[in-house]
Amino acid sequence: MATQLHSTLSYYINQNNKKIITPVNLYSIPYNSLLSLSTEALWDTGASVSAITPDIMNKLNVTPVDKKTIAGIHSTQVVDIVYITIELPNGVIKKNIEVAVCNIPSNVGMILGMDIILLGDFALSNGNSQTLLSFAIPPFKEKIDFSKRRNEE
After folding, report:
1. Pairing between strand 66-71 and 110-112?
2. Per residue in 121-132, is it b (16+ CB within 10 Å) or e — as a string?
3. Which DSSP helix (H) or strand (E) runs through 110?
4. Closest Cα partner for 52 from 94, 130, 113, 143?
5. What is the reported pLDDT for 2?
6. What is the bridge-based pairing of β-strands 110-112 and 36-43?
């Protein structure tokens, strides 16, 4: 039996949404199965760090461990930093992830930033009014290069 080297995620999103949003499960640190919840997460390549809302922080009963200054589109602010565990829709669990706590204007409970996206390979493909998010952890040795396929139909 072959060993699975990569955990992969394929997730279809209606293109009318104009946002890449998937469900995630979040857990408290230290892990407590009673302190877990599901929420929607926005995949944001413009965010260098991942973030959760103050409501999520309170529901998970996690305590801030630090403060950091983050810059967003509209402002710079000092935010609390907490640690949580994230489970992506493909079952990949990343433990002890540092996240910022701030208001998120997209009606989601979490932003998945480049700190998570850079853990693997991330690609978007479009067609038939759908966007396919494809994500794999760890990244493959060979990079995705669409220019190699430019002569395909």
Report:
1. unpaired
2. bbeeeeeeeebe
3. strand 110-112
4. 113
5. 61
6. parallel
Q: What is the mean pLDDT of residues 91-100?
A: 89
Average pLDDT of the chain is 89
Distance CA 31, CA 108 (A): 23
Rounded Cα–Cα distance for residues 101 and 78 (Å)? 10
Is residue 110 pLDDT above 90, yes or no?
Answer: yes
Q: What is the CATH number of domain 7-149?
A: 2.40.70.10
Domain boundaries, the chain: 7-149
pTM as predicted: 0.88
Tokens found for residue 34: 């009673």
